[in-house]
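Researcher: Structure prediction, please.
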Amino acid sequence: MVSEEFIRIFKTNVIHQELVSNINYLKEADVLTIEESELCNSMLEQLELTNKIDLKKSLTQLLDKENVPDFENIEGYERLELESKIDEFIKERKKEKEDELLELLISELEHGEISKNATKVFFDKYIDIVDIKDDNVYDNLGKIEDVEINISSCVDFIDEKIHGLQNGTLTTIIGEDDVCKSMWAINVAYEAILQGKNVLYLTPSYNKETIYKRFIVRHSCDVNRFDKPFTFDDPYSDYDKDNYLKVYTDFKMNYLKHLILFDESEFIISTRYNLQKLIAYAEDKFLKATEDGILLIIIDDFTQMKLDNGRRSITNIHTIISEYYKYLKNQARNLLGTERKISILTTINSYYLYDVRNNVPKELKVLSDNIFSICADIYRKNPNKFEISVLQSYNGYSSDYTKTVPVDYKYWHIKNEEAPEESFQSLLEKEKEENKILRSDLNFAKNIINTSDILQSSLALNNILE
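Model: Predicted structure follows.
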């Protein structure tokens, strides 16, 4: 059967092409019904007379005739959602077509009614789906369009796979250890601030002084500008005090204007309305100070958020998530009704969510665009490594494994010194090997079909398929 690696490359090729290329892939993969193929031909013929919005609407009709969304302002995140639907459509159609052809062939073998023409059609179609030329695979991998990283996740393999925290998305970091989740949030905010992006940082779990100190310590790790990093737990000499003053002054003068930080002592957030007032206040302050609005909102730690329905306080974490996440998801796509998209990041303690990896709560899966998990052995064997995995992402990528990410826990710094997981060349070499095996199996099956022992042929082919 088709290798998992091939399907992944096939999906990647489809997702990252323009819509015209997507239509061609649908046709060339031979997964369409006659009516759908005619619709694709019609769309291509009218390409010069239609704009992209109309083309997207037509393609959506092909995928889901009863649910055509409004495409008046479709860009960015909505486009990714549409391409994800195209991806799933192709995958399902290809699987249906393969199953249909396999059943036909097995039936012919079992009943002794082999039609050489039918089996030839089967193999031609099957090979046509999987036998992409090696050079084409490499070319397509090389032509994957570069998607701008709006906000870096500060983890290289995540930025590589999902292009950072895209505007219009809501991201959740889940983990038991509060410190490692906060360190990740601090690094995301810090990198955004360095790029001149305005960050609203809400911290129900920590006081403002603690978070400011963490930012200063993280800033001291810039070896190109400062002599050495420091922590507030280190003993100070006069030299260290001068270094601290240099770091503090640089952060205050150049970057502090891009950060607004609130802890619970200043704003009691117990309803969506109170949260909206806080966001509106920060938006106004940023516009006056930088002539730009909020681009990133972080809530660290969301587990400590309170909710009051006017009659009583809500304590169920799932209800609190559902209530606030609906609002936050809307704000990510349409901040304060301004039609501006931003990125929102929250951290949640997995202790309250039970078995997260195998049973992510429904409200998180539905309302979060990205879900990352993080764990660390800070207090025992290895304080300078985090284990990170992607449970869900807006573009469909997820990992069934954890990735070790080096950090400097003492200085609140995610270092990202490891090389990328796999290069395009290594993927190509894998695909070449998979194709060799697949072609060998198909040729073997062809030879079996031409034998006179029908029963033996059936058993042999079933062994291959299994």
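Model: Residues 199 and 296 are 5 Å apart (CA to CA).
Researcher: Thanks, that helps.
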